[in-house]
Structures are given as structure tokens and as C-alpha cells.
Amino acid sequence: MAQRLQTERQATAAPAIELRGISKAFGPVQANRDISIRVEKGTIHGIIGENGAGKSTLMSILYGFYKADRGEILIDGRATQIPDSQAAIRAGIGMVFQHFKLVQNFTVLENVILGAEDGALLTPSLAKARKVLGELAEEYELDVDPDAMIEELSVGHQQRVEILKALYRHADILILDEPTGVLTPAEADHLFRILKNLKEQGKTIILITHKLREIMEITDTVSVMRRGEMTATVMTADTNPEQLAELMVGRKVLLNVPKGPAHPGQTVLEIDNLRVTDEDGVERLKGISLKIHAGEILGIAGVAGNGQSELLAVLGGIARGTGSVRLNGKELDLTGNHSDGQSRRANSIAHVPEDRQHLGMIMDFTAWENVAFGYHHDPAYQKNGLLMDNDAILADTAGKMERFDVRPPIPTLAAKSFSGGNQQKIILAREIERNPDLLLVGQPTRGVDIGAIEFIHKRIVELRDAGKAVLLVSVELDEIMSLSDRIAVMFDGRIMGERLPEKTDERELGLLMAGVSGAAA
Ligand code: ADP
Ligand code: MG
């Protein structure tokens, strides 16, 4: 009897997953280096690390997508081979991907049973699945309409279908790779409730994210990866965001750039009843009115796709709009004619576009050519129009790269050879050092690592402290909260409200972002 209890206790003590000495190289890149980790049963275990740290590779090994060069996988204490995803599913592992793998023109129910062991498209299995789905929805707040077409569902609901699929296959261990990147704050909250419910029912969850706030909010344990190595595993209750950031980056990082009070001066930009209609005749901006002062950062919060891109595009002179926009009292041309990007620059508007891959840079051209391009108005002439002193541009670019800590600081390297964060620094250097009256900046730190975020935030605050006006568009509420002197929330082409960061919180902003007006101030 005692013997049996003892054995049982040992069995429950075995971690749900144990990885021992996992290594994986892609050619010269050592994506995972001798990684060992234990994930205890019934816990939410976070994995955090900068871009390229090796998180997805490690999870792909666990899910049978990649074969490790070395190392062992133990599930429930037993050494287990996972050569493919079928083996992972048999071992009780379910994966929710960054990019969903659902069939768009199938229903929820059909997607759930597709590929499951009893998953032929037969009435009995559909009926059974309907029943199971109903139970799962009940138990975990995982409600989705089983008969809805996937293509009709919001991303938040599509993600729930992915989770349902895994649970339908009896997953005990659920891996989620950056699940909140595509969600609104309300959807993310709901996802976290689902994850907590799953944990209470004894499921084990691995949550990959680069968002420190999510780690602190929901995980029990957190492992940090840096450059292919597992640098630490700590109890979440025993750590804090600053320590985690330092473990991720390998040096101290300021998560909130220090920033004194704003001293707003005269009105730099005055927008009145600005409207933009897209090529399909859909109105994207429905009468925006805003003011931005010198020495002030106005943050535009909102879920992507609510008109922020159109706002930046029309202010940057690359889209047509109606209404009135005055810069330092002077009316701007809103006809979006293609030479206007140039006249905007002459008017001292700098623009760091959201979509830097397409609008910010020409990827096949060198860093120095990209730095020079801002001086040319017509993309078709950018190459031939370079009747400039190339040596001077090269030297200037080298200086910018050094001041903006671009790595590697080589002006003759093609733009595409730099990481996303370093491309962003090159564009920022080009735009900020032109010393504009107004900086338009969209998603300044999208895809940028935490160390570079600190740097970029400092430069933006410096520009504001130099008396310039900044219009910041970001889908990251943390970024909006820590940089903005004033926050305007956009929803469906309108400004839902303006708030002061010290007098609001993420909850209130989240409601405004979801179109709930009259959210308490
Ligand atoms: P993370 O998920 O932490 O951002 P990844 O695991 O995706 O990191 O990538 C780790 C490293 O391995 C990166 O340098 C990445 O470029 C490289 N890598 C990942 N997958 C592949 C692949 N299929 N082929 C070549 N290199 C890869
Ligand atoms: Mg990844």
C-alpha cells in the first residue's frame, strides 16, 4: 500500500514535459543550444525571448516539425520520440499556431473533426463533435458557433477553434506561440480566462510571448531564452519585468523611458473633419479632428485597421483626403498627388511609415541609398536622380548609423540584410535627423526587440523635448501609455475619445478601442 502511494506520488511528480539537452542548428545558425527545461503538470509555463532567440524552434521540435540534432524529450516522465505531429498528438500535445491552419470555407465543426482519428466527414462523427464542442464551450468559455464558416469569424474566434481542435484530440498539453499578437485587448483577456480554466482542469500550458505583461499576468513559471540558450527558469511570483528584460537582452533595459512633463507650445498640426475614402468607395476616415502642439506626443491607440493607416497616409501625402489639415497655420494639399510626399518633407513633416518593408525602404538598395532617398520625390527616379555627392552621403549615413546604434554599422550593406529592428533605426535616423516640425510615426517598434525599443523610445522623447510635435500611431497599448502626452483612441474611422495617460488605464482604453463610447473617464 505504502509502496503504491509512493509510486503514485512519484508519477504525479513527473513533469508533463521534460526536455534534456536539446540542440538544433540550421546551417551555421545554432537555433537551440543544449536546452533543458521541466514543465510541471497543471501549470502555465511561459517562454520569453527576443526575436530569433529560438522559442518557435524549440516548440517545433516538441511538436514533431523539426528533429533535434541532440537531446531527449520526456512526456510524463517517459522518454518519447516525436517524429511528426501525429506522434505529438498521440503524446497529448496540441499546438495553436501563430498563423492559423484552418480551412476557411469549412464550418467550425468540420474544421474540428478534420484529420482527427475518427474524422471522416460522416454524420455520426459530426453529431459527436457537436456534442463534445458544446461541452468544451461550456466548461472553458470556449464558445463559438459550430456551424459558422471560418472565414466569417474574427481572429479571436478562429483562435478558439484552434484550441477546440487540440482539445477534441484530447490534448493535455497546449502550446500557444505568440497567441495575442493578433488579438484585441478584450480578446486577449478572454483567451487568458480560457487558459486559466484549462489549467484548473489540470491541463498544462506553454505560452510563448515576448510581452512581459502577459508573462507576469498569467504564468506560474517562466523560462527565458537568449540566442538559442535557456538562460533562466524562475517562478513568476519571484521575478519582475525588469529582471526578465535583463535576462532576455543580457543587459539592463529601461522598460519605461524616463520622460519629464510636456511643455506644449503652439499648435503645429490642426486637422479638421478629415475624411478618406478608399478605392472600393469605403469611407475609412469619417471626419477626424485633432490638434497637435509643439513639444507634445499625441498617441493614437486602436486595433489595427480602424483608420490609423489611412490617417498616416493622408498626412504623409501618399493618400487623398478631404477636409482641412494645417501645418503651422498653412493649409496642406490633400489631393495625394505623388509629388506631395516631397512637398511634405519641404514643409518639415517627417514620416516613419507603418509598413517599412514597402513604404519605408527599398530592400534591395543599400543603407546609404535608402538614407538618401528621402530627398527624391519620385520613386521611379530614385536611382537615376542621385546626382549627389555619394561620398558625402556615405559619410553622413555612417554617422547616422553610429548615432542610432544600427548593427552592423555598414552603409554599403543592402537594407534587406538588416534585421527588422535595425531597418527601423535606419528609417528613424533618416527622418528624425532631418529635424522636422512634425514627426509622423507608425508602429515604431513593431517586430523590434526590447533593447532597441528602449533606444527608439528615447529618440522619440528627445525629439518632443526639442519642441517638435509627434503623432504616434501604435497598436501596442504599453507603447502608447508610456510615450504619449495625450491619447486619442480610434475606432471605425473616428476618434472615440481623448484621454490623458495618467488619468486612464488599459481597461478604459480597451473599451474605447472596441467602440464602446462613454467609457468612464
Ligand atoms: P523565435 O521564435 O524565438 O523568434 P526561432 O526559433 O524562430 O526564434 O528562430 C531561431 C533562429 O533560427 C533564428 O536565427 C532563425 O532565423 C533561425 N531559423 C528558424 N527556423 C529556421 C529554418 N527553418 N531555417 C533556417 N533558419 C531558421
Ligand atoms: Mg517565434
Head-to-tail CA distance between termini: 63 Å
CATH superfamily grouping of the largest domain: P-loop containing nucleotide triphosphate hydrolases
Q: Going across the major beta sheet, what is the strand order?
A: 6-7-8-3-9-10
Give the low-confidence spans: 5-11, 377-383
| CATH topology-level fold name of the largest domain | Rossmann fold
Strands, total number: 20
The CATH architecture of the largest domain would be: 3-Layer(aba) Sandwich
Separate helix tally: 18
CATH class of the largest domain: Alpha Beta
Q: Which range best describes the helical content: under 10%, 10-25%, 25-40%, 40-55%, 55-70% or over 70%? A: 25-40%
Bound molecules: adenosine-5'-diphosphate, magnesium ion
Mean pLDDT comes to 88
Strand proportion: 15-25%
Radius of gyration: 26 Å
Tell me, briefly, the overall form: globular
Largest sheet properties: 6 strands, mixed
Number of domains: 2
Helix/strand-derived category reads alpha/beta
If you had to describe this structure to a student in words, what would you say it looks like?
The chain is globular and about 70 Å long. The strands form 4 sheets. A 6-stranded mixed sheet has the order 6-7-8-3-9-10, sandwiched between helices. Helices cover 35% and strands 24% of the residues. The chain contains 18 helices and 20 strands. About 3% of the residues have low confidence. Helix 14 crosses helix 15 and helix 15 packs parallel to helix 16. A hairpin with a 5-residue loop joins strand 11 and strand 12. The longest helix has 18 residues. It folds into 2 domains: 248 residues, 3-Layer(aba) Sandwich (Rossmann fold); 169 residues, P-loop containing nucleotide triphosphate hydrolases (Rossmann fold). With 521 residues, it is an alpha/beta fold. Pfam families: ABC_tran (PF00005). This is ABC transporter ATP-binding protein.
